Fold this sequence. Notes:
Oligomer: single chain
Order of helices and strands: EHEHEHEHEHEEHEEEEE
Number of helices: 6
Catalytic activity: N(1)-(5-phospho-beta-D-ribosyl)glycinamide + (6R)-10-formyltetrahydrofolate = N(2)-formyl-N(1)-(5-phospho-beta-D-ribosyl)glycinamide + (6S)-5,6,7,8-tetrahydrofolate + H(+)
Strand content: 25-35%
Binding site for N(1)-(5-phospho-beta-D-ribosyl)glycinamide: 15-17
Function: Catalyzes the transfer of a formyl group from 10-formyltetrahydrofolate to 5-phospho-ribosyl-glycinamide (GAR), producing 5-phospho-ribosyl-N-formylglycinamide (FGAR) and tetrahydrofolate.
GO molecular function: phosphoribosylglycinamide formyltransferase activity
Pathway: Purine metabolism; IMP biosynthesis via de novo pathway; N(2)-formyl-N(1)-(5-phospho-D-ribosyl)glycinamide from N(1)-(5-phospho-D-ribosyl)glycinamide (10-formyl THF route): step 1/1
Amino acid sequence: MAVPPRIAVLASGRGSNLAALIAARDAGTLPVEFALVASDKADAGALRLAEAAGIPTLALSPKAYPDRRAYDLDLLDRVAASGAELLVLAGFMRVIDAEALRPWVGRVINIHPSLLPKYRGLHTHRRALEAGDAEHGVSVHFVTAELDGGPVIAQARLTIEAGDDEQRLAERLLPLEHRLLPAVLGLLASGRLQWRDDGAHYAGQPLSAPLLLGDRGLE
Length: 219
């Protein structure tokens, strides 16, 4: 039996997507081993979730470093020292320096609450509503130095309803996030999803369009 890949997770907030990953691991549907959960905020809920699950944690404050680059280099050095082979950004609210990221390109994914390339950055639910969009969604993409700009791997779509405000839309989208991220990480962990010089490949073929999350999983 193949040894499950070791993963690290970076998170800044409550850690609901981390909880989904842990639940999938515990259910036997996500064959990974958690090497580390790290955060830029010592009070992040994600760290408490990791501690409760017996996963090593790291809280590293950016204020202790002279600049963003120094922080990112040290953070990712520590991630590498944990033995992690793959890295997941699950609500990590920082843009990682390109030099620090370079050794990880092709091994790091991020979940972003919009149908990329729409609405990179913050306040995605508000922006979708203000634009009068008919649908909203969530994307998982490979991380590059460009903000929310790496190749999109998979998406889940949601119809915007008349009663949606920013909070309700976010709440309705969350269950899709919790299905999408473990599904994509599972593909990466199994080797079915790979990064090559010309971008994302799935099942040995270039990924020409994002996979879509349906009732039966990713298609």
